[in-house]
Design goal:
The protein has 372 residues and is an alpha/beta fold. It is built from eleven helices and 17 strands. Strands 16-15-14-13-7-12-11-8-17 form a nine-stranded mixed sheet. The structure holds nicotinamide-adenine-dinucleotide.
Length: 372
């Protein structure tokens, strides 16, 4: 095993900071694996790059991400830029012989996602996507409960993802309202619940979707209003695994919802409910309980739900969003070292992208569409 790994980070916004925190924390939390060396950071200009490199602890800074890709001291590249840049940056990094940790969604166009998957395969390098919610120790536990047959045969799944960061009709038009960022809630957003489906049940097989725009236009910084090009809500019927029916509802204009990803799983012997807004709890109902005592019980996250134990030995204290990113970073390092790893790599990521594009095609055509 190599003792150190050189890290490059492109982008320092919301997700860039999460990656920086993960690279800074992963060795302290897990103790094993190579020590990340924060080598090079890229932003849109030299000044911002230098400022963020100092804050995050990176040695070199550049206003041109291609300098970072060309740096021989960089072994792995975090791509945390807006969606439209993912394909170009990830493919360049892979072609330069770097491992890649790229934020979701994979790319805006399906053809770009296909090129990314092909580049990853051709490079022989590790390329994984930022599907952090699959890393929650309680989502792992949920998988164990399903595998143990505790709720019997699963027959129906209901997914909801809601946030309110675009709920205000007067919020400024920005890149997430531009068609260059993708379809909207579906790919920016819906890929997260789809990542949960993928790890728990496998690929979505067919879909029937309807997308909508709560607001036709938004104000711009310059003044005049601009037509919104993306769809902030989506309603989808789907089938997943072997004959499991499902419903998915997405809304990024949902006042009051802050980080809601609700997953309800119904089986022949019970049900499970998970909500990301209460990410340290799992609700389990088993029909075998005495009828006088039936009801959902709350399973609270603790060190018995690995790798919670690596963060803190005390139960009930809870993990947070950035901890999921640290776990994801550790899984990436496992994959790089050749160990088994819980990641969504570019080839599995492509399956999620195919489902997303099938959903848009269904919306366009108005009928069921087969995925893949
Ligand atoms: N995994 C998650 O839960 C999650 C959450 C939010 C966003 N995301 C994803 O992360 C990505 C970034 O989103 P964000 O919310 O961090 O956006 P952001 O706008 O906060 O940050 C993007 C950063 O990229 C920089 N940037 C843009 N073009 C660049 C270029 N050519 N070279 C270098 N830097 C450049 C910007 O200056 C900015 O600092 C998106 O793909 C988004 O979908 C993932």
């Amino acid at each position: 095993m190599q003792s150190a790994i050189g890290v490059g980070l492109i982008g320092t916004g919301y997700m860039g900071k999460c990656h920086a925190l993960a690279w800074n924390g992963v060795k302290a939390v897990f103790g094993d694996g190579p020590r990340p060396v924060l080598v090079h950071l890229a932003e849109v200009n030299e000044e911002l790059a230098r400022q963020k490199a100092d804050e995050f602890g990176f040695a070199k800074a550049t206003g041109d991400w291609r300098d970072l890709i060309a740096d021989p001291d960089v072994d792995v590249v975090s791509v945390t830029t807006p969606n439209a840049f993912h394909a170009e940056m990830a493919i360049a990094a892979l072609e330069a012989g770097k491992h890649v940790w790229c934020e979701k969604p994979m790319a805006v166009a399906l053809a770009d996602a296909e090129r990314m998957a092909a580049a990853a395969q051709a490079s022989g390098k590790v390329a994984v996507l930022g599907y952090n919610y699959i890393q929650n120790p309680l989502i792992r536990q949920l998988g164990t409960i399903l595998a143990d047959g505790t709720i019997g045969t699963v027959n129906h799944v209901r997914l909801e993802m809601d946030e309110d960061f675009m709920a205000d009709p007067e919020a400024l038009f920005y890149w997430k309202s531009e068609a260059s960022s993708g379809y909207g809630a579906l790919d920016d957003f819906g890929v997260h619940p789809l990542s949960l489906l993928q790890v728990l049940f496998g690929p979505v097989t067919r879909v029937f979707a309807h997308l909508s725009k709560p607001y036709a236009d938004r104000p711009t910084r310059e003044g005049p209003r601009r037509a919104v090009e993306t769809f902030d809500t989506a309603s989808v019927l789907f089938e997943v695994g072997s004959d499991i029916s499902g419903v998915m509802a997405l809304n990024r204009s949902a006042w009051g919802r802050k980080g809601r990803i609700v997953l309800q799983i119904f089986g022949s012997k019970g049900s499970i409910v998970y909500d990301q807004e209460r990410m340290n709890e799992l609700q389990l109902y088993t029909a075998s309980d005495r009828s006088t005592e039936q009801g959902f019980r709350t399973i609270l996250a603790g060190p018995q739900h690995r790798p919670y134990d690596r963060f803190i030995p005390a139960p009930g204290h809870g993990l947070g969003f950035n901890d999921l990113k640290i776990i994801e970073c550790h899984e990436l390092l496992n994959a790089i070292s050749g160990a088994s790893a819980r990641v969504i790599d570019f080839s599995t990521g492509l399956i999620i992208e195919q489902a997303v594009h099938a959903m848009f095609e269904s919306h366009r055509r108005g009928g069921w569409v087969i995925c893949g």
